[in-house]
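re the bet — no i am not wrong, look at it urself. input seq straight from the record:
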Amino acid sequence: MLDKLTLVIPTYKRHAFALRNMRFWSNTPVQLLVMDGSDEPISEAELASMGSNISYRHAAVGLVKRIEMALPLVQTEYVALYGDDEFFLKSGLEASIKFLDENPDYITCCGQALGFRPMKTEIQGFRRYKRLDGRDLDNSDGRDRMVRHMADYVPSHIYAVVRTEPWRNAIKCVADREFRALAISEVQVELCLSYAGKSRALPDVMWLRSYNETKPIRGTDPGLDDTKPLYVWWQGDETAKERAEFVERTAHALKAFDKDVKPDNHYKEAVVDACDAYATDVVNARKGLLQKAGQFLPTPTRVSIRNSYKFIKNKIKKKHSLFEFGEILKNSGCNVNIDEIREIDKVLKQFYNI
C-alpha cells in the first residue's frame, strides 16, 4: 500500500536530519524525495548507501521553489509533505491511504499527532494538535468547508496524505506568487485543499512532530518572514494592495477545482470569509487570561510574566517518555502501533547518544 505514496521533504542546512530520515525510509515501499536548498549538497559518499526508493535533489533556491521543482517528480497516486526533523508512522500512513482508496469524495486524510522532545536521559512524548481529534470536514459545499476549517484552524491538509493532482494545483497556486507574511504559504495550501475536497483525521497516530530539536527556519523566503505574522498582515491597512492580489490569485486557484464554475466574486468572497475566520481564530487564541490582564503593562514586564508562567507550567506538568505517551494515547482510544513508536524512540536515542 505504501508504494502508492511519495513523501516530499524540503530541507535546508540540516543534513544530519535529512540523512536520519533517508536512513529511516531507505528500502521501504515509500518513495522519498528530498529537496535540499542548502549552500552545499550532501556528499555522494553519504548518499551511496541509500535504497533505490530515495531520491535526493540539491538546488540552492527557496522553499516554495524547491517544492515546485518536486511536482513533476511525484509519480504516485498520493503524496505527503514532511518535515526533515519529523517522523511519520507507517501504520498511520497506511490507514490514511486505505481511507482515501475507499472514499473517493475525500482528497486528504491524516492521523493524530504526537510531539517528541529529546532530553538528557530519554525522549519525551506529548500530545500535539488536539483539534485533529475527531476532525471530519465533510461539508458538500467547498466554501462552507473552507470557512469551517479556517475558523478552527489546524494544519490538517499540508502534512496529510493527499491525492496528487489537487496537491499539485495547490502548490502551483503558492508558487505563482509568494507573499510576505509568516506561514502564508501553508495557509494558502490549506485554503486550496479544504476547498477542493473533503478531509478527515483518523484516530490513528500518524505524525510525530519534533519539538526543540532545531531552530525554526526564518527569513529565507517571503513566507518565512517572522516580522509579519499572517493575521497582522491580513488585517493591516498597509498591506491592502498585496492582500487584494492574494485574494485574486487564490480565488482563481479555487475556481479551477470546481466542475460547476461560479461567478468570480463567489471565490473572492469565500477567500475573504475564510481568512477573516482564520484571523479571528488566531487573535482569540492569543487573548488568554494573562494577555488580557497584562495589556496595560509595559512590554518587558508582560514578556517576563509570560516566560515565568511558561517555565512554572512546564515544571509542574507531568512528563512522559515517548513510549509511555504512546501507551497513554492507545489507552485513550487512539490506534497506536507501539512497535513503530519503539523503533523511532531507538532511532532518536542513537541520534543523540542517549
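see?? The chain is about 45% helix and 15% strand. told u. also The chain has a mean pLDDT of 91. so pay up
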